[in-house]
Amino acid sequence: MLITGPRGTKDILPGMSSSWQYMEKKVRDICRLYGFKEIRTPVFEHTELFLRGIGETTDIVSKEMYTFTDRGERSLTLRPENTAAVVRSYLEHKLYAESLLTKLFYIGPMFRYDRPQAGRYRQFHQFGVEALGSKGPAIDAEVIILAVQLLKDLGLTDLNLYLNSVGCPECRPVYRESLQDYLREKTEKLCTDCQTRFDRNPMRILDCKNPQCTEESQGAPHIVDCLCPECSTHFEQLKSLLTVAGIDFTLNPRLVRGLDYYTKTAFEIQYAALGSQSAVCGGGRYDGLVAECGGQSTPSIGFAIGLERILLTLEKQGLLPEVTNKIDVFVAPIGTEAQGMAFKLLCDLRKQGFTADMDFMDRNIKGQMKQANKYPASFVAIIGDDEVAQGKVMLKNMQSGVQELVDSSAVQMKIQVEMED
Length: 421
Ligand code: AMP
Description:
By secondary structure, the chain is an alpha+beta fold. The protein folds into 2 domains: 14-171 and 227-316, BirA Bifunctional Protein, domain 2; 327-413, Rossmann fold, CATH 3.40.50. Helices cover 37% and strands 22% of the residues. It is built from 15 helices and 16 strands. It has helices spanning 14-34, 47-53, 59-63, 83-92, 137-153, 172-183, 192-200, 211-216, 229-244, 289-292, 307-316, 339-351, 365-374, 385-390, 411-420, and strands spanning 37-38, 44-46, 66-69, 75-78, 102-111, 123-132, 160-165, 250-251, 263-270, 279-285, 300-306, 327-333, 356-358, 377-383, 392-397, 403-407. An 8-stranded mixed beta sheet has the order 1-5-6-11-10-9-7-8. The protein has a 5-stranded mixed beta sheet with strand order 13-12-14-15-16, with helices on both faces. Strands 2-4-3 form a 3-stranded antiparallel beta sheet. Strand 12 (327-333), helix 12 and strand 13 form a beta-alpha-beta unit. Helix 1 (14-34) packs antiparallel against helix 5. It binds adenosine monophosphate. The site of adenosine monophosphate (AMP) has 16 residues, from strand 6, strand 10, strand 11 and helix 11.
């Protein structure tokens, strides 16, 4: 019986890899433009990092982690997200000592034991940025604008940016209490998850997808009305910076990051046509996380973009780049005598930077021409017994159909000249 890939994983087949490379190039280009440097951390970390860095009450930690014990009895976990690992690395390698503001980005696979469906996988890829060190709203705006510009550069339209503030350890407890006061009488009508959230993490009730919970929390107080002066000023300044930069956004009081070390700005970018998995980007400020991981208090902000969802969006909007296998030259030897000369020509062509291939399947000339057309190849270099005897190559320009006997030493020059015409 054939063994298939694990549930919730996807092979990126050759037909799709150029789309991934296209997307990754856009990511790298924009990060260069904004001065974010790449960081690559391991795909597994000590489990403890995620317990501290994401929080034990979250769905990710309580239900979705791939945790295993290695042969040395260590508890390790495949990373479900990358912020905690970036913070770990930032502290371990004292990146804070190199500059006041550290701007990092990453691209890579993440792992969550989630129920697979369109746009939700158990292994998926995120591009994310983290800016560590600045508390001002300008860096929030910079990070948000980077995400928006990337999506625009990919040609995507119909995306919505949602914005909220989740306050800080000073003002959030006040809000938490007024939210609990509002929901106390309604707890029985909430889903079982939200009933547990009521005490542990009541703000998460606001972003529960269960329609009954949405309805019950409909008239709940908004956190932006409870912000302390510092959080409120930060939020107002961020909004005006985004407005100045011409970025459209919608305020969404239900957007929360339910952990203590998430502070102030929370944002999400959605593409509604993706249905239930419409979030393509999620991010926010985490001023308390670096201290939680054992470092000095370091205000920070970041986001993560789900690359599979970007790809789905590109596909839906007809923006995937065309796949081409086009090569410059196909070398077609006829008979065993020609093999050596053909192989040498192939090697020389590649040394010169031409994309080239030849027949490795002992096909006859008809089969080889078919193969050359399939690529398609711009030129076919045919070498038979006569050509070997004369030290020449029959070079066929596949576009014009013209073929010409050329000295083997002059093939590359001839191709170069014709390609430039
Ligand atoms: P999060 O780390 O949960 O804030 O997610 C950030 C982004 O990663 C989301 O907006 C999605 O685009 C993407 N994402 C999260 N979980 C998954 C998943 N299981 N499968 C595919 N993409 C995901």
